[in-house]
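Sample 3 of the quickstart, ligand nicotinamide-adenine-dinucleotide:
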Amino acid sequence: MTGRLNGKVAFITGAARGQGRAHAVRLASEGADIIAVDLAGPLPPAVPYDSATPDDLAETARLVEETGRRIVTAQADTRDLDGLRKAVQAGVETFGRLDAIVANAGICIPETWDEITPESFRDVMDINVTGTWNTVVAGAQHIIDGGRGGSIVLISSAAGIKMQPFMVHYTASKHAVTGMARALAAEFGRHSIRVNSLHPGAVNTPMGGGDMVAGLGRVFETNPQLTHMITSFLPEGIADPEDIAATVSWLVSDDARFVTAAQIAVDLGSTQY
Ligand SMILES: NC(=O)c1ccc[n+]([C@@H]2O[C@H](COP(=O)([O-])OP(=O)(O)OC[C@H]3O[C@@H](n4cnc5c(N)ncnc54)[C@H](O)[C@@H]3O)[C@@H](O)[C@H]2O)c1
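Result:
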């Protein structure tokens, strides 16, 4: 790897597994120390795939340490701003600075519009929107105080550029994340802090496990006309978490020093079709 993140410190949420783990390992392999947060516990009841565990978060720590970099982990819920502040504070005390925030924690629930309950709508908004906001709030002042600028990456989705049928709440939440990144980019620019949203298409993670595939199949059967709305232009069809992490690494690095307020799609072209 390049060492282009040597000396930097990154705060990553949803880091126990999937894309968040890949971001932690990739940024560490490029030289960054990591502050890793995850709920590592039960996800809201309507979520159809398995929850992450403390062992998953410990495995992320092991993989980061294997790269030779350091990591501070915390089991915390992004809906709990005080818990996030404590986790970031502990990391900054250990590493002495903060340069990057990767707001990655999120949930996804396939439901037709009339299956969405007040609880599942609120859970998706609370985690995907308020949780993302809390993540920025918990970390941004530390980057500003460092006086060296930095990078904030908000993980949205293809559903934050076009839409994902049968996920009104998810689509609404990821569009909110897109807008949040653009608006934050304007205010943080004076501190040389760049803010971008990143839009993965389908990614091979535990989010696609458990009953997720069956759940998607069931909702698409209610309106087969909408089945082909996610079309990859490339033969692979689905990305690996490491493919998304490569773009996170670039956005965090000085190679992307004039990239801000951008919507970066890593979606095999699917948002264009
Ligand atoms: N997998 C995909 O196809 C896909 C596509 C586009 C966007 N995304 C987005 O990418 C991000 C990462 O997803 P993934 O595929 O790695 O999913 P994942 O379920 O494998 O991992 C998400 C992690 O976030 C954690 N998390 C969830 N809610 C949390 C909370 N309130 N506080 C702290 N941690 C919490 C989970 O415990 C889990 O470890 C999400 O924002 C997701 O919406 C995923």
